[in-house]
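Q: For a teaching session next week I want to show students how multiple molecules come together into a single three-dimensional assembly. I've collected the sequence lines for a complex. Could you give me the predicted structure tokens for the whole thing so I can convert them for display?
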Amino acid sequence: MPLSKKRIYEIARELGVSSKELIKKLEEMGMPGLKAANSVDEEESALIVHLFEEETAAADKPTAKTEPDVESVEKPVVVTKQAPKKTAKPKRKPASTHGSVRPPIVSVLGHIDHGKTTLLDAIRESHLASKEAGGITQGIAAYQAELNGQKITFIDTPGHKAFTGMRARGAQVTDIAILVVAADDGVMAQTVEAIDHIKAADVPIIVAINKIDKANADVSKVISDLAQHGLLPEAWGGDTISVEVSALERKNIDELLEMILLVAEMADLRADPKNPVEATIIESHLATGQGPVATVVVRDGTLRVKDWAVAGAAQGRVKALLDPSGNRVNEALPGEAVSILGFCDLPEVGTQIEVTKNQGQAKKLAQQYQRDQRPQAAPRARTLDDLFAQKEETAKLKVILKAASTGGLEAARREIAALDVEGVELDILVSGVGGISESDIVLASTVNEECLAIGFGVSADPKALKLAEREGIPVLLYDIIYHLVDEIESALKRQLGPAYEERAMGTVEVRNLFKAPSGMIAGCYVADGRVERRGLVRVIRNNTEMFTGEIASLRRFEDDVREVQSGRECGIRIRDFNDIQIGDRLQVFVLEEVER
Ligand code: GDP
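A: Of course. Below is the structure for the complete assembly, covering every listed component.
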């Protein structure tokens, strides 16, 4: 059995030190560190524990009363069994010039129905760091969990919204990504998508193999699926950490949190409350009676009540801060998530908060941002058809999709993703739960390509509608998913124009030629079918197509006629084509409009 990161974590816990310290110690002792740890077997790992204990015990005695020099503070503090783990923590991480360790910020991703929401609920229920205020359900987009006195901040909007949506805006909020894979379903399309996004973001990944309580759970299939996508689990000699859990039965949740803490420890996430504030808006909405409410995750510095804050084009003074449980707090420290009240406008998701000295500076920065972001003055589409009328060959269309619930959102996403109209590339830029907000429209207006906002079972904020009108961004609201799909589909089709199919009418042989003032007239014999005046002709010479065009005139003797049946002779002039020759054959056909 290889010594995995998990085992290192266990040994470290046994010894009451951090995994990082253990690894460092192992390296000092000439033992393989984490990189080579996979080749260490159980026996050797037992020896490591033994050696470590001996070493630390020996180190303990002579230096017991001496002043610790700088070096020994940096070195692992010797924590033997008599010292409780918790009190050892602050000692181990002395506030240095590098700041102190901050809680990791974690996002949960995975295929629909694999249990992201259930997992977030399970963690929230069992490990919430602060108590809920007087039964108020906050519905805030993040919360903080706690295990053994260590905190973890979860971004509580499962799926791609928080992760990819924000990355699209250039913000990187997440430190660690949890990839949820249902053991009864395996790696699915959105799992692969999530893996791609996580890899692109270069964020450490922990796989939560969920639903292991199910009778048809097949963990080894999940593992081999994962291996095929470059995530080789530790159990197979790779370095992807995976934890088997049941979100529904709350099984192994602690173990998952421990692994998060382990990965966080390796990543050595540091911050200093004294640093300038570094925080990202992860969600914003207009609350009745409260105005704009924005949820931020602080990565560095301290955000305080009464700070002047700017987030993109929005600015204001922090009137109040609410923690994820709805309690009023005075400040938010690194790694913490809070809701901010006091912005004058709705901040855009993904924008960074900047704290300024005064109101003047805040306003100036916000205006500056607005100027920089303003789209070019080119007229934009007003309706779906206008939008498409501007397009030529391949149309690219970005969609902002909002829905009333996660379930509705996923259903709408699925339907839209399944839309397949030739010549159109449809791309969901951002999707989320909630009404169409001003920030959605701001986002749409900053996109280079044409963008469209779709609400499914939700309404649009009046300010959003006004802005959309000004920016020429179509806002489409639907209550029934199929109406949404039908409408988009038919709009896409309208854009492409109707589809036509050729229907053959007859074949004609050219037997004579006559020069007329209007052009060359072919004296023809209708070999089969018929010729109609409204028909189109394709000129075939030696089995090669020479020309295709309209019939300019169709005559029988001196008379213009509407049609000539097979076995008869007629005169045909083809519009814009005088190079007709004896022996040519004409295929006569009409174009009929068909459903695309
Ligand atoms: P999401 O779409 O990824 O957020 O998935 P949900 O959390 O909504 O879960 C989808 C379904 O799977 C729900 O019916 C859950 O009750 C169920 N589910 C989630 N986790 C587990 C689990 O560990 N075991 C079982 N048996 N069912 C689960």
